[in-house]
Write a structure and sequence with these properties.
The chain is mainly alpha-helical. The protein is built from eleven helices and six strands. The strands form three sheets. Strands 1-5 form a two-stranded parallel sheet. α4 packs across α5 (103-113) and α5 (103-113) packs across α7. The relative contact order is 0.16.
């Protein structure tokens, strides 16, 4: 069972932890070997969306050609047409949380990946996000997490936005939360979150306050280091 102590910080960490499961789902831990093939170079005529060339993606991300090959194989297996819509994205995440409802958190995460706001996540969108989360600097990763929780993208996190995030995490964890969630618990954690993050007490958390507070939290920093050698 998951204790609710410190859940306000889990809101920062959970997006990172989920990607271990996502990478397993997309085959990131399969061995890579053999010669490059046309398929590995994204030269596919059967997909609805053909990614940019591998060389260009290698320049734009912090992944090697081999890593991009492995990612693409897994992405194509899950999304044969080359893009994933929100409903399919939610279905993928629901596999990891059968005892809860991950749909709302998956919605927030999908919005963060769908940088073009066209209702779909392409392979490029996917690897750009992963490159930041797995290979970016601490500031890059925290900026990405801040953008995830800044739901209306106005440059600050409000208590209402953080409450929506907290509720989505409770829903996602389902019966694994302990003690069983009471209606007022998410709001209590939001207040605790703001006590730590809202440095000037103006009722909102800016990206500067968010990054500064996270860098001072030992648990967050240690958790981020776990991703330095994932692939």
């Amino acid at each position: 069972m998951l204790s609710l102590d410190g859940l306000e910080m889990i809101a920062v960490l959970v997006v990172m932890g989920l990607f271990i499961k996502v990478l397993e789902q997309f085959g990131m831990f399969e061995p890579v070997g053999g010669e490059d093939s046309e398929e590995d170079d994204f030269e596919l005529s059967t997909v609805c969306h053909r990614p940019e060339s591998m060389d260009k993606l290698q320049e734009q991300t912090k992944f090697s050609k081999k890593e991009l090959q492995v990612l693409y194989r897994g992405f194509k297996n899950e999304c044969p047409c080359g893009v994933v819509n929100e409903e399919n994205f939610k279905t993928i995440y629901s596999q990891f949380f059968p005892q809860g409802d991950s749909s709302m958190y998956a919605h927030f995460l999908f919005e963060a990946f769908d940088t073009n706001k066209n209702g779909s996540v392409s392979f490029e969108d996917f690897v750009f996000g992963l490159s930041i989360i797995l290979r970016g600097t601490i500031n890059d990763r925290l900026n990405w997490a801040f953008n995830l929780y800044d739901l209306n993208k106005d440059g600050c996190i409000t208590k209402e936005e953080m409450l929506d995030i907290m509720k989505s995490i409770y829903d996602m964890m389902g019966k694994y939360t302990y003690p069983t969630m009471q209606d007022d618990i998410p709001r209590e954690h939001v207040e605790s979150f703001f006590q730590k993050m809202d440095r000037n007490k103006d009722g909102v958390v800016t990206v500067e306050e968010f990054i500064e507070s996270c860098k001072k939290d030992e648990n967050i920093m240690q958790s981020m280091q776990l991703f330095d050698n994932v692939i």
